[in-house]
């Protein structure tokens, strides 16, 4: 299952929200449903579905990720953490 990423904007502020989605149609349907409920000061934009979504806190981490310096170990550790987070939510 891929992770769908949405940008939610409310009164000028934006946040990215990541949600596991089984397919593209489900992600598009969620975007439509959320926009219908959002009101005139909010907007939901579906950005895409991705195999992995990484959260980094520094520019150095982005540079290491881009140069391959983080390696599969870091990404696999992130995947495991994301999967365990999903299990706890269920």
Give a short summary of the structure.
By secondary structure, this protein is α+β, with helices and mostly antiparallel strands. The chain is built from three helices and three strands, in the order ββαβαα.
Describe it:
The protein is an alpha+beta fold. It has two domains: 1-52; 54-90. It is built from three helices and three strands; from the N terminus they run ββαβαα. It has helices at 24-38, 59-67, 71-89; strands spanning 2-10, 13-21, 42-50. It starts with a strand and ends with a helix.
Mean pLDDT: 82
SSE order, one letter for each helix or strand: EEHEHH
Total strand count, please? 3
Rg over alpha carbons: 15 Å
Instruction: Describe the global form.
Output: flat
Sketch the major β-sheet: 3 strands, antiparallel
Strand content: 25-35%
| Tally of individual helices | 3
Low-confidence stretches: none
Class of secondary structure makeup: alpha+beta
- Major sheet: arrangement of strands: 2-1-3
Q: Separation of termini?
A: 15 Å
User: What is the domain total for the residues?
Assistant: 2
The percentage helix is 40-55%
């Amino acid at each position: 299952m891929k992770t769908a990423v949405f940008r939610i904007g409310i009164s000028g502020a934006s946040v990215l929200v990541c949600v596991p989605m089984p397919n593209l149609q489900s992600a598009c349907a969620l975007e439509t449903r959320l926009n219908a409920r959002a009101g005139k000061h909010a907007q939901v934009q579906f950005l895409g579905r991705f195999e992995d979504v990484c959260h980094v806190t520094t520019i150095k981490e982005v540079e290491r990720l881009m140069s391959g310096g983080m390696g599969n170990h870091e990404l696999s550790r992130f995947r495991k953490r994301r999967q365990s987070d999903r299990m706890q939510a269920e």
